[in-house]
Write a structure and sequence with these properties.
Pfam families: GST_C_3, GST_N_3. The protein has about 210 residues and is an alpha+beta fold. Helix content is about 55%, strand content about 10%. It has helices spanning about 10-20, 45, 65-75, 90-110, 110-120, 125-150, 160-175, 185-195, 200; strands spanning about 1-5, 25-30, 55-60, 60-65. α1 (about 10-20) links the parallel β1 (about 1-5) and β2. It is globular, with a radius of gyration of 17 Å.
């Protein structure tokens, strides 16, 4: 398998955690999102992923984009250990929390949105920070309330799941952007457990071959 990604991309981070959790060997191919106007825009990469986003997983003849689709594919092809453990109700909760991060929050604060705010709308650093603070606050406030209902040792009960995979990179991003986390004690507690797990620690952006100091 090959994983095309970028060291600091939240979605790429998710895919790395999932692959590590399932102990699957893969070749990591960096796609620099900023250098030379962004390698994701080059025709050679667009042939793999017409959206020009990361990650892209290549597994033989299978080419997949979107981190949640990649995780569900991996879970179906390599079912153990499962990223969607438990009964239908528990799997529903896992999917809901995963989508809260991957579909509601992350698309509003990712690189291309921030670039658009600055380049097209003329947002200065203060305005951009206010944008990030607003969306992180809305998302993490709701996430914290959901954790009160379904969390245990991890996001949903006591088993590692796709919801945990989605949470880790977004908290990493929040810390990178200077977002205060004191109002989310359950979120922080779960996150601290998660980053101690070896398959999570090895997926950290700083451990990737394309990481920059």
């Amino acid at each position: 398998m090959e994983l095309y990604g970028y060291w600091r991309s939240s979605a790429s981070y998710r895919a790395r955690i999932a692959l590590n959790y399932k102990q699957l060997d893969y070749n990591y191919i960096p796609v620099h999102l900023i250098k030379e106007g962004g390698e994701q825009h080059k025709q050679s990469y667009r042939q793999l992923n017409p959206n020009g986003l990361v990650p892209t997983l290549v597994d033989g003849s299978v080419i997949l984009h979107q981190s949640l689709a990649i995780m569900e594919y991996l879970d179906e092809k390599y079912p153990e250990p499962s990223l969607l453990p438990g009964n239908a109700q528990k799997r529903g909760a896992i999917r809901a929390l995963s989508l809260d991060i991957a579909s509601e929050l992350q698309p509003l604060i990712n690189l291309r949105v921030q670039q658009y705010l600055v380049r097209e709308l003329g947002a200065d650093d203060e305005a951009k920070q206010a944008w990030l603070q607003h969306w992180f606050s809305q998302s993490f406030t709701a996430f914290e309330r959901n954790l009160e209902e379904v969390s245990g040792k991890f996001c949903v009960g006591d088993e590692f799941s796709m919801a945990d995979v989605c949470l880790v990179p977004q908290v990493y991003s929040a810390e990178r952007f200077g977002i205060a986390l004191e109002n989310y004690p359950l979120l922080r507690e779960v996150y601290q457990r998660l980053i101690e797990l070896p398959w999570v620690a090895n997926a950290h952006p700083s451990q990737q071959p394309d990481a920059e100091s």
